[in-house]
């Protein structure tokens, strides 16, 4: 995500060598979704460069590879899991939560596979699971069974809030594409652990995106008061304004809870003018 083209030269300095791009992103935000790991396990050398560009307190939420979660559906994945865990080891404490995103076809009947998989995972990491089957959101028994499985492993349920996206018809190509690809499920906001993770998807219109996250501002402030350490990712369909929006969300939470530390000033996209 830190190499998104619309950010280059606007929010992040451009051009930058690959080994400096994450450092520039980390001056804007203190966490990142590891979405690229879903498509391929990175080399250990690559992950070492990620660690070298970020402070120990920076949060990576790397997604398990799709070969594990989507292609093999959590079964017979020992080799792939071992390779993934070896690759991300250089992140150290930066590996805040390992993200198990399950396909929409993963239903309540498959919870046995999830429970067995979570039992095999090393206890040195924290885990979060994202489900997309509507039964987990609409059937109280299915939700309760999933929570029991997650609680047994100390894992979090990662909600993907798309309510704002689907409130009205799309008005851009990016929104139309998101309508086709993103899950349309009810909002869920119950935290199971001290490290809740939220994915929020707004609209390409900034005002509508901000209006849609009001619920999460109050929820996150409440979690902080309870002593939890939440991580929130702010998206829009085109993600063009995601960096300043993420900082604006942080500021909105600080307006409710002033004790929250401000984010550092980001690296300027352009060098300062001489005159």
UniProtKB/TrEMBL annotation:
<protein>
    <recommendedName>
        <fullName>DUF72 domain-containing protein</fullName>
    </recommendedName>
</protein>
<dbReference type="InterPro" id="IPR002763">
    <property type="entry name" value="DUF72"/>
</dbReference>
<dbReference type="Pfam" id="PF01904">
    <property type="entry name" value="DUF72"/>
</dbReference>
<dbReference type="InterPro" id="IPR036520">
    <property type="entry name" value="UPF0759_sf"/>
</dbReference>
């Amino acid at each position: 995500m830190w190499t998104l083209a619309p950010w280059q030269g606007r929010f992040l300095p451009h051009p930058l060598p690959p080994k400096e791009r994450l450092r520039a992103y980390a001056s804007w935000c203190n966490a990142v979704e590891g979405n690229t790991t879903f498509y391929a396990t990175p080399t250990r050398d690559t992950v070492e460069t990620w660690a070298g560009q970020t402070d120990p307190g920076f949060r990576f939420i790397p997604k398990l590879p799709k070969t594990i979660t989507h292609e093999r559906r959590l079964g017979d994945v020992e080799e792939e899991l071992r390779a993934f865990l070896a690759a991300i080891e250089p992140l150290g404490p930066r590996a805040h939560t390992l993200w198990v995103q399950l396909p929409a076809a993963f239903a309540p009947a498959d919870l046995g596979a999830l429970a067995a998989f979570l039992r095999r995972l090393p206890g040195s990491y924290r885990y979060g699971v994202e489900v997309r089957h509507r039964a987990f959101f609409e059937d109280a028994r299915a939700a309760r069974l999933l929570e029991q499985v997650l609680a047994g492993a100390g894992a979090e349920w990662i909600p993907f809030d798309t309510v704002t996206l689907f409130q009205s018809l799309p008005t851009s190509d990016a929104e139309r594409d998101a309508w086709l690809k993103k899950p349309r499920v009810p909002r869920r906001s119950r935290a199971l652990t001290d490290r809740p993770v939220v994915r929020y998807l707004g609209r390409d219109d900034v005002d509508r995106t901000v209006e849609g996250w009001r619920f999460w501002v109050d929820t996150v402030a409440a979690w902080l008061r309870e002593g939890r350490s939440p991580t929130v990712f702010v998206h829009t369909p085109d993600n063009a304004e995601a960096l300043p929006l993420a900082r604006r969300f942080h500021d909105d939470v600080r307006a409710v809870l002033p004790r929250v530390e401000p984010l550092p000033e980001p690296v300027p996209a352009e060098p300062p003018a001489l005159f």
